Amino acid sequence: MFHWLEKNPFFFAVAVFVVIAFAGLIEILPNFAQASRPVIGTKPYTTLELAGRHVYIKNSCNACHSQLIRPFKSETDRYGKYSLSGEYAYDRPFLWGSKRTGPDLMRVGNYRTTDWHENHMKNPVAVVPGSIMPAYRWMFKNTADIDTAFAEQLTIMKAFAVPYNTEIPMADGSKVTVALADTVEGARASALEEAKVITADMKDQAVKDAVAAGTIPEIVAIIAYMNSLK
Amino acid sequence: MDNRPLEYDYTIAKWFMLTTVVLGIVGMLVGVILAWQMAFPAVNTFAGEGLAEYTNFSRLRPLHTDAVIFGFTLSGIFATWYYIGQRVLKVSMAESRFLMFLGKLHFWLYLLLVAAVVVSLLLGITTSKEYAEFEWPIDIAVVVVWVIWGMGLFGLIGIRREKSLYISIWYYIATFLGIAMLYLFNNMAIPTYFVSGGIGAWYHSVSMYSGTNDALVQWWYGHNAVAFGFTVPIVAMIYYFLPKESGQAVYSYKLSLLAFWGLMFVYLWAGGHHLLFSTVPDWMQTMGSVFSVVLILPSWGSAINMLLTMKGEWQQVAASPLIKFMILASTFYMFSTLEGPIQAIKSVNALAHFTDWIVGHVHDGALGWVAFMIMAALFHMAPRVFKREIYSKSLMNTQFWVQTLGVVLYFTSMWIAGITQGMMWRAHDEFGNLAYSFIDTVSVLQPYFTIRAVGGTLYLVGMFLFAYNMYKTMTSSRRVEENELQNASPMGA
Q: Closest Cα to residue B372, out of B62, B73, B149?
């Protein structure tokens, strides 16, 4: 059979394809629907948080920080409860990372504050002596891309029925609604409101001024995102 | 010209040889910068505070991986294809204007893509998925370039004179199909600009998969991009170049059959080992783990087949630096394909995952196996495409030892770093509290990061020696006659 295949490139290619495609079908498809179901308490990102997530991705934070707490005592002691599949239901793309040059950030919102992040992003060694993380000072100057975040929200709501403007059950029995504006102007305005809450806890005057004047620096967005990681 | 009826056309092979060398140096240079940044963070601003956004670790890291994978390695794959393909199919590119046109189009579009990738990654336009960072406009262009290569590949096979496909051709076909399937499915995304009615950045897209599913598809891709980029086509090279250079027949045809079909079937299952102890279903993790161990068989099948090909001719390893490169590559392949399965065992993975040991594993494979084999291939091709002898044998020997030392320093330091950090993360004191804060586990790695940076720098120095040797071979080495080009490549002192 192999001799025959080696003389018939078309059937050879078909045979190779069947053999390599097999594993993907068996491994990926069976749990596909189940794995994308959220757990109680998981809610989609707000416009500012999503813009912050884009800043996180833009700077490849995931190259050094994981967002995946494995079910070991040493990890739950350090980072909090181990990760559940449903907690990632609104993560497109996933940001588990593959290397922990820095610590895991899955639940960083539980134990770090806006103030801590501001100081840390400006000068990591001032907060964590011995840190090898670079400073991210340009985030204080660059403007966050709110429009693209809003476009993504619209897209995932249309394409994947992500529940914006819908009551979402929380673990304590309460309900929360993540609002999504109808227009891009509305989205900008609501992102600005969120940004003002963040900057109230910040010290950098230039950032405070920028938000007061209606533009949102990247640092505000990424802090909003990191505060949402719980 | 007595026993050779054909004059092969190496135009496109030559062009891709050039990009192999240039992008190899670029990719590894960026890698060396990253290594020094981890040892000495001040290097993050080496071009000044103003450019820090573009020179810091996080922006450069995807550029390093993509330049080495899609720049250096892919160029090497294409260069060797446009060389080996004609020779084992016994047909010249020059015989078909259409195939020649496709080949040229392939090269120039590829070059354009490389430029687009460099710019977009430096600007931070990325999807964040490892080795699949490109946004949808580039993805579409990648597919076009890949299809053009595929048309050329199957076109050449279509007009072949030698009816039986040689082993290397099997592996090139598998490379084409494997990458095509993986790349398409992993990059499924929806451009937000169009769905939202023209809001935001036009190039932005959102993944079709979420969370755990996204991770599963990504590592099915990520692991197998290694399979079909770093293993399959490199095996294609060694199956051609080692028998050619040594004048020995491949040891066993049956072993090559077993290794090929075994590799095709087993490799794809193993992606799950990137997700051990994550939130993907347990049975999938176990499958990934088990198949990773099974993967030793087909991997070692090829490697042992190559080593046994040298049976009775081991003096050639001492005599020829070119054979040395290939034997070391094959040895590192065995080494790396044993190390990988060990890391895929659940209890080992619990320690090794997220640490530098994984980085070490990638690099003993990529530097020791992939890069050594590609450079050996280029050395073998050079006298045949430029009709000149290799400029300097002693320079080759120097390069060999400098780079070997570099790889050894690299993986040994990363082993120690990875295992040290893994042990410190999990250490508890007598009261059951964590023994170390995170920063303790980082500071302790500084010496190993420094050793790694030195190792990487040595390897890069070797790349410059390689580039110089190739340049001299191309331009000013002694011209050789066709009858000098039988087996062992002619080399100057």
A: B73
Closest by Cα among B376, B379, B396 to B388: B379
- Are A92 and B178 a contacting pair at CB < 8 A? no
Establish if B127 touches chain A: CB-CB under 8 angstroms: yes
Nearest to B129 by CA among A108, A70, A85, A60: A60
**Crossing angle of the two packed helices A184-199 and A218-228, in degrees rounded to 10:** 80
Q: What is the pairing mode between strands A167-169 and A175-177?
A: antiparallel
The pTM of this model reads: 0.95
Counting residues of chain A whose pLDDT is more than 70, the rounded percentage is: 100
Report phi then psi at B77, rounded to 5: -65, -45
Checking if the pLDDT of A147 tops 90, the result is: yes
Residues from chain B contacting residue A148 (CB–CB below 8 Å): 192, 199-201, 204
Q: Which residues numbered 9-38 in B keep a CB inside 8 Å of some CB on A?
A: 37-38
Helix H or strand E encompassing B206:
strand B205-207
Half-sphere exposure of residue A29: CA atoms within 13 angstroms, side-chain side: 6
Which comes out higher in pLDDT, residue A113 or B50?
A113
**pLDDT band, residue B5 (cuts 50/70/90):** low
Do A9 and A55 share a domain, yes or no?
Answer: no
**Cβ-Cβ contacts under 8 Å, B264 against chain A:** 16, 19-20
Dump pLDDT digits (tens) for A90-123: 999 999 999 999 999 999 999 999 999 999 999 9
- ipTM of the complex in this document: 0.94
pLDDT level of residue B1 (50, 70, 90 thresholds): very low
pLDDT at B306: 95
Instruction: Kindly state whether residues A26 and A39 are assigned to the same domain.
Output: no
Architecture of the domain made up of B11-477? Up-down Bundle (1.20)
Length of chain B, in residues? 493
DSSP per-residue letters across A25-40: HHHHSTTHHHHTPPPT
Which helix or strand (DSSP H or E) is residue A155 part of? helix A146-160
Give the per-residue SS3 of B452-464: HHHHHHHHHHHHH
The string of pLDDT tens digits covering residues B321-364 is: 999 999 999 999 999 999 999 999 999 999 999 999 999 999 99
Chain B residues touching residue A19 (CB < 8 angstroms): 261, 264-265
Q: For residues B343 and B338, give the distance between their C-alpha atoms in angstroms, rounded to a whole number.
A: 9
Which pLDDT does position A33 carry in this prediction?
76
Rounded Cα distance between A66 and A62, Å, is 6
Report how far apart, in Å, the C-alpha atoms of B393 and of each of B106, B399, B475 are. Answer: 33, 10, 16
Domain with A50, as residue range(s), is 35-228
Measure in Å the smallest separation between the Cα of A116 and chain B Cα atoms: 16
A191 closest CA partner among A157, A124, A227, A146: A146
Domain borders along chain B are 11-477
CATH number at residue A77: 1.10.760.10
Q: What integer is the mean pLDDT of B130-154?
A: 96
Position B3 scores a pLDDT of 58
Q: Does A150 touch chain B (CB under 8 A)?
A: yes
